[in-house]
Amino acid sequence: MMLHVCADVFSKYLFNAPFTSTLQVVSGYYMVLISFFPLALVGREGGHIMVELFTRRLSRRATLRLDGAVGFVTLAYVLLLTWKTTEEALRRTAEGELWEIATGYLAIWPSRWFAPIGFGLLAIYVLLRIFRDLRAHRGD
What we know:
The chain has 140 residues and is mainly alpha-helical. It has one domain (35-138). Helix content is 69%, strand content 6%. It contains five helices and two strands, in the order H-H-H-H-E-E-H. It has helices spanning 2-15, 22-36, 39-44, 60-95, 114-138, and strands at 98-101, 104-107. Strands 1-2 form a two-stranded antiparallel ribbon. Helix 4 (60-95) packs antiparallel against helix 5 (114-138). The longest helix has 36 residues, at 60-95.
């Protein structure tokens, strides 16, 4: 994304020939991609917001139980998001969704698949994390 935008700026100011549709490609593809694809990685790295205000004094066993319960709620929520974004991606793919740009049209429907893929990967990670927490709870 950075290379695309920088090349567009240099082309515009050095050669007076900006790229067409940079804004649409950045907003329709790059921004969606960087928002949804790293969800599972952020979860694995512990980058999501966690507030331990009420749980920091709980025992290890109680914390593992709570983590397991939160894991199941999270899994249900992420699976719902995966399902709904997949429905939307299927609908937009069938329509052949296009954005009008200065030189014609830009097929935007492929970027609709970034969200269900990202949420699906996150669901797989959450499921693996639930199994890990259950094993830790049992003491394996």
